[in-house]
Specification:
By secondary structure, this protein is α+β, with helices and mostly antiparallel strands. The chain is built from four helices and two strands, in the order H-H-H-E-E-H. The two termini are 12 Å apart.
């Protein structure tokens, strides 16, 4: 289609990604180009593809429940201790000074570091397997909906292209 005047405006409104040159230079847009552009760039087709990607991500997320999980934690602390709270005495040899004052003494500050690791390995999780298997049909349905949206956009673009071609022929 050679796009001039009102026809150029109609095509520009139908296909916002097409840029028309200023002046008398016509811009060609074939029926195939119009259908391909609409199938790839129309809002319904793009939204349907994004929904498909989200469905695939949900399958991956559900599949993670079948794999081992690993977590770690670290806790650092510093505190003082009164030896009288131990509840026992260290016996000393006769004539020797006791290790700790029997009336209690403050020890510290004592710094501690507590490192822990936790691994969970699911042996057999039938519910997680069912969740993964249940997510696959949603992906297939989403792919089909994306194809349908692209086909509908291409058909609409083809009809718009034919309308623009008819208008151009009438002019």
């Amino acid at each position: 289609i050679r796009a001039f005047g009102a026809t150029a405006f109609a095509v520009a409104m139908a296909f916002p990604g097409i840029a028309f040159s200023q002046g008398t230079q016509p811009t060609a847009l074939t029926l195939g180009d119009a259908a391909r552009l609409a199938a790839a760039q129309s809002a319904p087709a793009v939204a349907a593809r994004l929904r498909t990607e989200a469905a695939i991500a949900r399958v991956t997320q559900k599949r993670a429940d079948l794999f081992p999980s690993f977590s770690t934690s670290a806790l650092e602390s510093g505190h003082t201790i009164n030896s009288a709270t131990f509840g026992f005495d260290f016996p000393a040899a006769p004539g020797e000074k006791p290790l700790l004052d029997p009336d209690g003494q403050i020890i510290g500050p004592v710094k501690t570091l507590d490192l822990r690791a936790h691994i969970v390995v699911p042996a057999v999780d039938f519910a997680a397997r069912q969740r993964v298997n249940g997510a696959h049909p949603v992906v297939r349905a989403s792919v089909a909906a994306a194809r349908s949206a692209a086909d509908q956009a291409a058909a609409t673009a083809a009809l718009d292209w034919l309308s623009a071609a008819r208008a151009d022929a009438l002019i």
